[in-house]
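Revision sheet: structure tokens.
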Amino acid sequence: MADQVIRYPELSTPNTFTQDELGWVPWLEPKPSSELTEDDYAGLVERGRAASPYFRLLVRDPVVLGARTRADNDIFYNTDAGLARAERELSAAATSRTNGCLYCASVHSRFASIQAPSRRDDVQRLLDAGIDGEQDERWTAIIEAAAALTATPSHFGRAHVDALRGVGLDDQAILDVIQSAAFFNWANRLMLSLGEPTALNER
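Predicted:
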């Protein structure tokens, strides 16, 4: 198995959290684009994801990838009710900041800033100072809940729910905090075990 691991001896790996776009390289061989089948594209859900080595690695099990991607899309893009999109991204960014996934922290912090451009400095403070950085009461409640779930689900409890309710979140919005944090706590650990971040376009 060791001879199947891809190594990048000249790779420059970022070591700080950033809202800038990063690249990512896999330690195992993704499925070549030329070998993708219609079942694979169904698993990718969006054909454009075939450009990503991460998704071409996961598409080696297209059924699981399809379920994963549909869950991801529903958690973050179905905003008919519940938490605003920016705060779903904030919850995911806090998760990535807590478990150390630089790549996903860059994605979700950038999306949080895009959705709430007036709060870009607050998002950056989360990256720079971590979950203990100063935020307003609402964002503090979301960040602390996401961080507790990330550490271990048993750290999340009534006090976090009460804090979220105290800043105006209803049951659906609280569920959105939980789902966005829980999903990316799992997804980050998968990404951390399969490859590493890079400066954009470096390979």
